[in-house]
Specification:
- The structure is a single chain.
- The chain is mainly α.
- The protein has two domains: about 70 residues, no CATH class; about 55 residues.
- About 80% of the residues lie in helices and about 0% in strands.
- The chain contains five helices and no strands.
- Helix 1 runs antiparallel to helix 3.
- The two termini are about 30 Å apart.
- Keywords: Periplasm, Signal.
- It is found in: Periplasm.
- InterPro entries: Cpx_auxiliary_protein, LTXXQ.
- Belongs to the CpxP/Spy family.
Length: about 140
């Protein structure tokens, strides 16, 4: 079972790279056009780009669902340890990014981060409500 979990986690780590290679990817999420040159060479139509984005969105959701299914099988202590390690890593990266910025950029970065965290909290609350509603049906 641990091998399957590790495979799922490794797969999870690779999805963002594929998503960033999609046409138009990265524009709204992190800015820029990371890796989209791969699809630019295919000269895709608007419809093909739309369909590719839809497929990648579905793949990312499926990836999340599969990963979550395996993570839910981990013992609580290991799940908590992993969450704590991920949180610490995220905080360290956030600090390093912030340290690279000028004071006025730091202020803007902090505002953006606060908004993003509020959206995450709102989404988590919605997901919790949805799960509770679905379990009653």
């Amino acid at each position: 079972m641990m091998r399957k979990t590790l495979i799922a986690l490794a797969f999870a780590a690779s999805i963002p790279a594929v998503a960033l290679a999609m046409p138009g990817a990265g524009h709204g999420h992190h800015g820029g056009k990371h890796g989209s040159h791969m699809f630019e060479q295919l000269d895709l139509s608007k419809e093909q780009k739309r369909d590719m984005r839809k497929l990648m969105g579905e793949q990312m959701k499926n990836h999340h669902d599969i990963t979550q299914r395996y993570l839910n099988k981990l013992p609580e202590a290991e799940r908590k340890a992993m969450q704590d390690e991920l949180k610490t890593s995220k905080q360290e990266t956030h600090k390093k990014i912030r340290d690279l910025l000028k004071p006025e950029q730091q202020k803007q970065f902090d505002e953006m981060h606060t908004k993003m965290e509020a959206k995450r909290a709102e989404r988590a609350e919605f997901q919790k409500w949805k799960a509770e509603r679905d379990s009653k049906n």
